[in-house]
Design brief:
By secondary structure, this protein is mainly α. Helices cover 68% and strands 0% of the residues. Helix 4 runs parallel beside helix 6.
Length: 187
């Protein structure tokens, strides 16, 4: 291997060292308010889902909401946690996931990859990047018969409606402590 190739490889590997130090630990108050928000947000969505919607064949809770809870209750200042990102990321990714499944379901590996990759690209293009949206797109593909029966309704309930309930809780809880503020921006 020549000097130029070795230098390029070294430069490439050095990128993996990182450029900054780990952020400082958060205080006990931040931990408690994150816990309270996540508990109330997920319990509200789950209670509505299991107590009101369970008999209808609909659901209000999907796995990607767990990751959304980390962002909107635990990382309230993150651009990825803001309302536009939360709502737009879930809604658009759900539509993309359903379309991917409907077009490519004979090739589930391809439908899965297209759903997530396209959701990421679309969220970037629309400034709605919300990492749990990738999971929402994937759930539309791999979620099984109960999710597939919903078709595009999946984008409204559970994706948009569940995210809206969690947003309402985030607005209420995240603004109780004097040192927290949510959202940083809407649009």
């Amino acid at each position: 291997m020549g000097r130029i190739e070795f230098g390029m490889l070294t430069e490439y590997l050095n990128k993996m060292k990182g450029t900054t130090k780990s952020p400082p630990a958060v205080g006990l108050s931040e931990i408690i308010w994150s816990w309270v928000g996540a508990f109330l947000g997920i319990s509200a969505v789950a209670a509505i889902s299991y107590n009101l919607l369970d008999r209808t064949g609909l659901t209000l809770i999907i796995g990607s909401f767990g990751a959304s809870a980390v962002l909107i209750y635990g990382a309230v200042k993150s651009p990825l946690a803001q309302p536009r990102n939360l709502l737009g990321g879930h809604f658009c990714s759900a539509i993309i996931g359903v379309a991917s499944f409907q077009l490519l379901h004979p090739y589930m590996w391809l439908a899965s990859a297209v759903a997530v990759a396209t959701a990421i690209a679309f969220m970037h293009a629309t400034r709605t990047l919300h990492p749990p949206g990738g999971a929402t797109a994937l759930i539309a593909v791999i979620g099984g018969q109960s999710v597939h029966k919903l078709g595009y309704l999946y984008a409204i309930i559970p994706a948009a409606a569940g995210a809206s309930v969690m947003l309402a809780i985030a607005l209420l809880v995240n603004n109780i402590p004097r040192n927290r503020r949510y959202p940083e921006f809407w649009f």
